[in-house]
Design a protein that fits this description.
2 helices, mainly beta, Lipocalin
């Protein structure tokens, strides 16, 4: 009798659906920026950023897995100089009318211990998609001291060759290599927002 009861309980436990520990987060566009650096004819390093970034993040810290989708509005490029921004938005560079979004998608998060160390994914820029690895230099998940929500933040860097994405104007005089620095904050979704 006891053996039959134990078997029944065990069978019912095994048949229960697995409880997902993956949390969903929405990127905070007011605290998330993609910055870039590029050599300017060897005279200086030119810097700028994109002001509009959106996306979603899924993270299971215990299992050390995650995924992310980030979308950057290419027309939101900001260098502090209106005429330069107009040129960069044009056909010579970003061609924002034809390619209004730059995206990064990944489902491969690499951890060293409890620290997120890199994210391997695909960057789509100027209509070209190529594999890119982001090196994570800072990672933190904690309850936000003001908003009292769970928030994850990260700083990640990578370097791409713009000519590989079809952005060839003035290369290599204006640098081919572009360093990208991505600063991200994302707030945990309420349970109903995960659907």
């Amino acid at each position: 009798m006891k053996k039959a009861l134990f078997s029944a309980v065990l069978a019912s436990v095994i048949s229960l659906p697995a409880v997902a520990a993956t949390d969903s987060y929405t990127i905070d566009p007011t605290h998330t920026f993609a910055n870039f650096e590029i050599d300017h004819f060897g005279y200086s390093t030119h810097r700028g950023r994109f002001n509009t970034t959106t996306g979603k993040l899924s993270l299971d810290v215990a299992e050390k897995t995650g995924s992310v989708e980030v979308s950057i509005d290419t027309a939101s490029i900001d260098t502090g100089f209106a005429k330069l921004e107009e040129h960069l938005r044009g056909e010579d560079f970003l061609d924002v009318k034809k390619f209004p979004k730059m995206t990064f998608k990944s489902s491969k998060f690499d951890f060293e211990g409890d620290n997120l160390s890199s994210i391997e994914g695909e960057l789509t820029l100027h209509g070209v998609t190529k594999p890119v690895t982001l090196t994570v230099t800072h990672f933190k998940c904690a309850t936000h001291p003001i908003f009292k929500k769970d928030v994850c933040g990260a700083t990640a860097t990578t370097t791409i060759k713009r000519t590989e994405f079809g952005v060839t104007k003035y290369a290599p005089a204006v640098g081919d290599e572009v360093k990208i620095l991505l600063q991200v904050e994302a707030a945990k979704d309420a349970p109903e927002a995960k659907k």
